[in-house]
Amino acid sequence: SQQGEEDPQALSIQEGENATMNCSYKTSINNLQWYRQNSGRGLVHLILIRSNEREKHSGRLRVTLDTSKKSSSLLITASRAADTASYFCATDVISGNTPLVFGKGTRLSVIA
Amino acid sequence: EPEVTQTPSHQVTQMGQEVILRCVPISNHLYFYWYRQILGQKVEFLVSFYNNEISEKSEIFDDQFSVERPDGSNFTLKIRSTKLEDSAMYFCASGYGGNEQYFGPGTRLTVT
Predict the structure, then answer these.
(1) What value, to the nearest 5°, has the Cα angle with vertex B20 and ends A91 and A38?
(2) Rounded to an integer, what distance in angstroms lies between the CA atom of residue A25 and that of residue A97?
(3) DSSP letters of A2-19?
(4) Domains of chain A, each with CATH number or no CATH
(5) How many CB atoms lie within 10 A of CB A74?
(6) Domain map (residue ranges) of chain B
(7) Which residue of B has its CA nearest to A106?
(8) What is the mean pLDDT of residues A83-100?
(9) Does B110 touch chain A (CB under 8 A)?
(10) pLDDT for the residue B89
(11) Cα separation of B90 and B79, whole Å?
(12) Staple partner for B57: which of A1, A21, B25, B61, CB 3.0–4.6 Å?
């Protein structure tokens, strides 16, 4: 089945460092999205990248998509303690009303 | 900034009881979703809703589950006879059809 699978499962870095998380999926997609979840809280939409895009930026976030390798990466630059959270990629296959398929997530800890 | 809201934030119920989880999607959105996340596991799709009817549902969404949009603002998920394994965070999401889905803070359901 189509799935997003993130790696690493857990990542611990110092404040100010960059954090890179990766996501792989199995089937062709329409879009790939990244979400953040603070412990026990809701999912916050970070960024959407379409299948015909290769890179997208939003503030300190940079997302890349390689459809030939069926993979995406999320880079957070100059990390802050407030970036500590779990990060999930989610994929969908068609436009409009389509469910998202989530990966297991990467738990990021940013140490001050 | 508009956001999806959910009530209650935490619901404790006894096995076999009915529960209704409530959501107020973002007002100009047309697509509505329920997802759930069992503690420590992936976020899983339950059901999507568009034009006053279910458009897609997962295997999890069996006869014990139902959804309703009783008025122009609320979107509810009902579980008729709760089981222990229904304990999870339930997330409502809404979207306008561009595939970005905006999630609420979740309702933590505990079945005892």
Answers:
(1) 45
(2) 20
(3) ---EEE-SEEEEETTS-E
(4) 5-111 (2.60.40.10)
(5) 25
(6) 5-97+104-111
(7) B42
(8) 85
(9) no
(10) 96
(11) 11
(12) B61
Name the phi and psi angles at B102, rounded to 5.
-110, 125
Q: Please give the CATH topology (third level) of the domain spanning B5-97+104-111.
A: Immunoglobulin-like (2.60.40)
Taken in order B52, B53, B55, B59, is the CA torsion positive or negative?
positive
The C-alpha of B26 sits at a distance from chain A's nearest C-alpha, in angstroms, of 14
Residues of chain A positioned with their CB less than 8 A from the CB of B55: 97
Residues A29, A2 contacting (CB under 8 angstroms) = yes
- Whole-number pLDDT of residue A95: 62
Gyration radius from chain A CA atoms: 13
pLDDT(B99) > 50 = yes
